[in-house]
Design brief:
This protein is an all-alpha fold and 562 residues long. The protein is 83% helix and 0% strand. It starts with a helix and ends with a helix.
Amino acid sequence: MKRFLAYMFSVAIILLCTLCSTDKGKLEDIETYINERPDSALQVLQSIDISSLTSNEVNHYHLLLAQAKDKCYIDETDDSIMLGVVDHYKSKSDFIKLFKAYYYIGRIQQNAGRDTDAMYSYTEAEQLLDHIDDDYVKGLLYAQLGALNHRSLDFNKALAAFNKAYDYFSRAGKTAHVNYTNLDIGNTYYALEDYPQAEITLKEVLSWASDNNDSGVYLNALEVLCLVYQAENDISSLHDLLNGGHFTDIKGTLIINTAKAYDAALNGNYSEAHRLLEASWALTQNSRDSCMIYHMAYIVSNEQGNYKMALDNYECLFNLQDSIVRAALQKPLQSIRNDYFETKSAYNEQLLQNNKYRMYIVIVISIFTILSLVLVYRRRMILKDNQISAYMELADELKVSLAVTNDKLIESASDKEHQDKLLKEMSEQITMLFSRQFALLDKLSNTYYETHGSSRDQDAIYHQVKNEIENLTTDKKHIAQLEKIVNEYKGDVMNILRSEMTNLNEMDYRLLCFLFAGFSAKAISVFTGDSTANIYMKKGRIKGKISRLSPEIASYILERLA
């Protein structure tokens, strides 16, 4: 039974992994044919259960779905999901997919009529072109940038973008896209009033569309060419175009109807011109279309000599154009915003680069500073530990020196009774003078050697030990009492010295007092802050001065100094 359950569990795991792997494989497979068969790609994508996909695969799925819908002419207007896709690929630094994410979120925003947001998205995508090797997608981007600039009436930038799109499509071998873009270029030349260049370009498009039976492109090229001939007032070329068999299988459009009305009026057929204009009202879709009819009605009426009707049509045209201009002025200046976004993007890129360098410098300095602080702190800890140990040893040395002093005093007594008396009195005097300090030093020494506390605790002990030892030497009361004890038990030797050797300074007297008291050179080093070598040198110098006194006094002092 257990073996059967284990077998079933293994089968379930394998099936689950297979399903996940299959869905992931579908996404990779869709990438290979989505541009040529977007409808098939969309159908497969809609059959995938995204609940079984990882986070990275879900974002890839939504990117492909947006691409498939765009190529199937499904105008999506909600960019909320694609905003998350952009953030995902931005965090992954996947520049190819990030480029596509910016492009397709721009298409969605463009569908929603949010041209400013779309321009920003396309500009962000443009900054990633160095990472893109696909000339086809580069051409798509510049085609959309051209369309946005054309819509915002920035025709020079539109022409530059369309020319780039034309070049990229040519490199990619996309002949249809080359001619679609060429149509946009011809339309832009017309907007720039470069009519000769517009005519040349549009005739190239007409030739290709005719050879490839592309009626949509053919009709659009014919319409713009009609507008070019009207703008140039090239009546002959317009008449030849309208009557040259180009419109045999083409239904009338607003532009073609107004062009035919213009041609009819110039040839005196005013009733046909008015009929065509009246029929054109059913083809209008916006205010611009109405302006076109009013303008042509004005021309026809003026040509006919019906000036009142011409004036009425002109007033309608003027009022309608006025409302269009006011509406246009209330819209954001798309071209200015485009420049702003380009500048902002370049600035942000430079700022990011500078911040990276700044961050690297800060990290290096921080690491160097931390290492330096660690080394300095470690060295200070070692020095401090050595100082603490030295002071602990010196504290012990002081106690030993004091004991030796007592022994010397006892040995210097001439008889047993006098020895006992000296011992008792000396002990009492020493106890009274140093008991508090040595008791505290004992306690601190034991605390230091027995504890394994923090460096802060040891540091505090060190400072207390240092302060207590310094109190033994800097406190004038202690020094005076010590000198009094020395005089009492060393035959008034300090008083004799002060009277016989007035040229010594106070530190010399203090050194002699410590020497008479029997302290070692190490202990005196702590008291005075001098090295033991200096102490021995000073002792020798002072002994030399003492030896120059009268023999009796010199002998008396040197016996007690030995």
